Amino acid sequence: MTQETVYKDAGFGASVPRGTKPAILVVDFSYGFSDTQYPTAADMTAEIAATRRLTDFARDAGMPVIYTTIAYTPLEAESLPWLKKATGMAALKIGTRLVEIDERCGMTDADALIVKHGASAFFGTNLAAILTGAGVDTLVVTGATTSGCVRASVVDAVQSGFNTLVPADCCADRAKAPHDANLYDMGQKYADVTDSADVLAWLQGIAES
């Protein structure tokens, strides 16, 4: 029995309904993840460019665009259990360049910025309140890393009541194997994994309706 058959027979992989009030979430495209002078980073040039095509359109169409960054105080860097496992993340200190959003993203003052202290963009933040207040029914999740903060944010998005889309070419990771494995798993259990061209066409259709 093939993997696809196992998942299909178990009832996974159904399509996610798409609403009419989308928002774009850009997870951790900060220099600590995107500038390869830092050991925590990888080359995310293509993924940032693909994401910007979505955010530029969404913003112009009046759709919410929300960025996240991980940033720690010295006490948090010393005490949080996650940083005892993922020790490299402790370099993401408040006030350093590593936690600034990469300028190639084109973030503007009109966008929201959420500072988080763990993997999920929802845990311990007001993201769900922002989305609910804006009437959002469908969340497009992009950013880094696919196997870490993107996945955690996607799982919490679904658990917070939002239909979720993941354009694969807008998600970056440090290695291909975890990137591919997590996209597959998200696509089976939590979100529709698609691409930026599909998402952009959908956003354009909403804007024109």
TrEMBL record:
<protein>
    <submittedName>
        <fullName>Isochorismatase family protein</fullName>
    </submittedName>
</protein>
<dbReference type="InterPro" id="IPR050272">
    <property type="entry name" value="Isochorismatase-like_hydrls"/>
</dbReference>
<feature type="domain" description="Isochorismatase-like">
    <location>
        <begin position="23"/>
        <end position="198"/>
    </location>
</feature>
<dbReference type="InterPro" id="IPR000868">
    <property type="entry name" value="Isochorismatase-like_dom"/>
</dbReference>
<dbReference type="InterPro" id="IPR036380">
    <property type="entry name" value="Isochorismatase-like_sf"/>
</dbReference>
<keyword id="KW-0378">Hydrolase</keyword>
<dbReference type="Pfam" id="PF00857">
    <property type="entry name" value="Isochorismatase"/>
</dbReference>
